[in-house]
Amino acid sequence: METLLRRTAEPHEPVYEDGLLRIFRTGRRGRLALTGDVDASNVTRLAGVLSAETRPPSGSAGGPASLHLELSGLEFMDVGGCRLLVHTATALFGDGERRLVLHGLAPHLRRVMRVVGWDSTPGLDIAR
Questions:
Q1: How far apart are CA 45 and CA 66, in angstroms?
Q2: Which residues pair with 35 in a beta bridge?
Q3: CA 16 to chain centre
């Protein structure tokens, strides 16, 4: 499976890093990769990073049309992290029908998203 991370150049400096999670830009604005664990200890910081990434840069008319997240490097994500992704997709879709595109989502997380019905969230695309 080719992922967003594998199609881009080497990762840049981390946008956020703690003992469990690293987030870095994989190219132009609107493309991030996450590695490690997302849990209650860092989900609020992740929300801040996603919000900042989707805000228009100063002097610009708008943020990126889509936010792409490479998740193949995640080892763990709790339900709070999944809920954040759904909330982010909903917010993007409500703001001009922008999209949140998830790349490299682990099969067990795909299953969770499908079972609870989050895979049909407007604005959320789970790439194969």
A1: 20
A2: 22, 73
A3: 13
pLDDT values of the chain reduced to their tens digit, one per residue, 128 residues: 344 444 444 557 799 999 999 999 998 889 999 999 999 999 999 999 999 998 876 666 666 789 999 999 999 999 999 999 999 999 999 988 899 999 999 999 999 999 999 999 999 999 98
As beta bridge partners, residue 31 has 68
- Tell me the helices (H) and strands (E) count for the chain, helix number first: 4, 6
Mean pLDDT over all residues of the chain?
89
Phi/psi at 33 (nearest 5 deg)? -120, 140
- Is residue 45 within 8 Å of 37, Cβ to Cβ? no
> Which residue(s) pair with 77 in the sheet?
38
Are the C-beta atoms of 102 and 126 separated by less than 8 Å? yes
Q: Are 114 and 75 in contact (CB under 8 A)?
A: no
**Residue 74, token pair as written in the block:** 């995640």
Identify the structural domains of the chain with CATH numbers, from first to last: 4-54+64-126 (3.30.750.24)
Q: What is the pTM of this model?
A: 0.87
